[in-house]
């Protein structure tokens, strides 16, 4: 579609949002399953339901415009989701992964807030107040989700991530403890046999002089 008018740009934004929401629809369940914190997992599941409703609102707008409801591939959302997928492949502590998931999700939210905000402004400018109200409803939900994610991050998740100890470090620390403990017991065993053991060794190796023949006093 050539952008010859604000109406064209409005439809362009709608198609971008439609593609973005449908991509997110597939990504959110994976993020919910990956989250360690139950409240974070619930937040992703709740936004999944919101996303379905936002797609339904876009369907209504396309229907009112007598246009086919379809998306124009949103490369920005594709990239944001790809970054989130890479996080899921990282071998890191669950507490750190939760903080990373929030960061990835808020990037998505901020992109959607910008998209819905622009589309709403275009709708009002061309006089489509019904579409503007539908877009405002989705915009409000995106803002609420962003706020919830911030509260979860600042409330506990970031704190847990700050004190999380990598499992490799825990394994190394445990190995050091075992080595130190073994050395301690070995030292005690050595000390326990110290003086008596040394005296025994000395008696064992001392020459037996009692049975030696006496030196002769005769002069030849």
Explain the overall architecture.
- The protein has helices at 6-34, 38-64, 75-89, 94-125, 129-163, 167-192, 194-205.
- With 220 residues, it is mostly helical.
- It has one domain (6-169): Ferritin, CATH 1.20.1260.10.
- α1 runs parallel beside α3 (75-89) and α4 runs antiparallel to α5.
- The N and C termini lie far apart (137 Å).
- Residues 171-175 and 195-220 have low confidence and may be disordered.
- In CATH, what is the homologous superfamily? Ferritin, core subunit, four-helix bundle
Q: What is the CATH class name?
A: Mainly Alpha
For the record, the CATH architecture stands as Up-down Bundle
The helix count comes to 7
**How many strands appear in the DSSP assignment?**
0
Secondary-structure-based class equals mainly alpha
Any idea what the radius of gyration is?
37 Å
Please state the overall shape, judged from the principal axes of the Cα atoms: elongated
CATH topology: Ferritin
Give the fraction of residues assigned to helices. over 70%
When the domains are counted, the total is: 1
Largest sheet: none
N-to-C SSE series?
HHHHHHH
Low-confidence stretches: 171-175, 195-220
């Amino acid at each position: 579609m050539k952008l010859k008018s604000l109406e064209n740009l409005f439809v362009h934004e709608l198609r971008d949002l439609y593609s973005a929401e449908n991509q997110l629809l597939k990504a959110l369940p994976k993020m919910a399953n990956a989250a360690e914190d139950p409240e974070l997992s619930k937040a992703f599941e709740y936004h999944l339901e919101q996303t379905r409703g936002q797609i339904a609102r876009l369907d209504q707008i396309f229907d009112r415009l007598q246009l086919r409801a379809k998306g124009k591939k949103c490369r920005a959302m594709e990239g944001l989701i790809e970054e989130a997928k890479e996080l899921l492949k990282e071998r890191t502590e669950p507490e750190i992964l939760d903080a990373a998931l929030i960061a990835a999700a808020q990037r998505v939210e901020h992109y959607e807030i910008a998209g819905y905000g622009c589309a709403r402004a275009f709708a009002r400018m061309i006089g489509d107040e019904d579409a503007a109200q539908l877009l405002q409803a989705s915009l409000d939900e995106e803002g609420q989700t962003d706020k919830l994610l911030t509260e979860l991050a600042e409330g506990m998740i970031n704190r847990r991530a700050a004190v999380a100890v990598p499992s490799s470090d825990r394994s190394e620390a445990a190995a050091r403890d075992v080595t130190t403990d073994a050395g301690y017991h070995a030292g005690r065993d050595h000390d326990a046999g110290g003086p008596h053991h040394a005296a025994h060794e000395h008696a064992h190796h001392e020459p037996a002089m009692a049975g030696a023949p006496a030196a002769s006093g005769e002069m030849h």
